[in-house]
Amino acid sequence: MDARVVPLVRRFAAVPDDADTADEEAIRIRSGLSKAFDWVDLLAAYRTVVLAGAGSGKTFELRSQAEQLRAKNRRAFFTRIEDINADLPNGCKIRTSKDLSEWLASEDEAWFF
């Protein structure tokens, strides 16, 4: 990891079904009445979508999570949405198309960012 990078302790919140309750949920999380999620929670979930504004660091952080899992010998893949096309194996930035093919032939879990 780049020595100039400061690791963040991100907290995540579920998106309410009703957009009008989003502010209320944020207040509940800040006051401790609702649970905010962290990366441990997100990585344990079967699937998760991370939404945030442009420039908030999503790409950097998702890539970093894939690299950290890979360092623990877990199957993790990263690609930018704009790089996904009909040929996904070549769009993966972390891991190779060979790694993806090996995972597809296995019964192992994998993380896609």
How is this structure best summarized?
The protein has 113 residues and is mostly helical. The protein has helices at residues 22-31, 39-44, 58-71, 88-91, 97-104, and strands spanning 76-77, 111-112.
Question: How would you portray this structure in words?
Answer:
The chain is mainly alpha-helical and 113 residues long. It is built from 5 helices and 2 strands; from the N terminus they run αααβααβ. Strands 1-2 form a two-stranded parallel ribbon. The longest helix has 14 residues, at 58-71. The protein is elongated, with a radius of gyration of 16 Å. The two termini are 18 Å apart. The model has no long low-confidence stretch (mean pLDDT 77).
Which characteristics define this entry?
single chain; 113 residues; 4% strand; elongated; 2 strands; mainly alpha
Coarse structural class = mainly alpha
Please write the string of helix (H) and strand (E) elements: HHHEHHE
Distance between the termini: 18 Å
User: How large, in whole angstroms, is the Cα Rg?
Assistant: 16 Å
Global geometry: elongated
Query: Going across the major beta sheet, what is the strand order?
Result: 1-2
Low-confidence stretches: none
Task: Count the beta strands.
Answer: 2
Number of continuous helical runs = 5
**Fraction of residues in H or I helices:** 25-40%
Note the beta-strand portion: under 5%
Summarize the main sheet: 2 strands, parallel
How are the SSEs placed, and which strands pair?
Layout: H1 22-31, H2 39-44, H3 58-71, E1 76-77, H4 88-91, H5 97-104, E2 111-112
Parallel strand pairs: 1-2
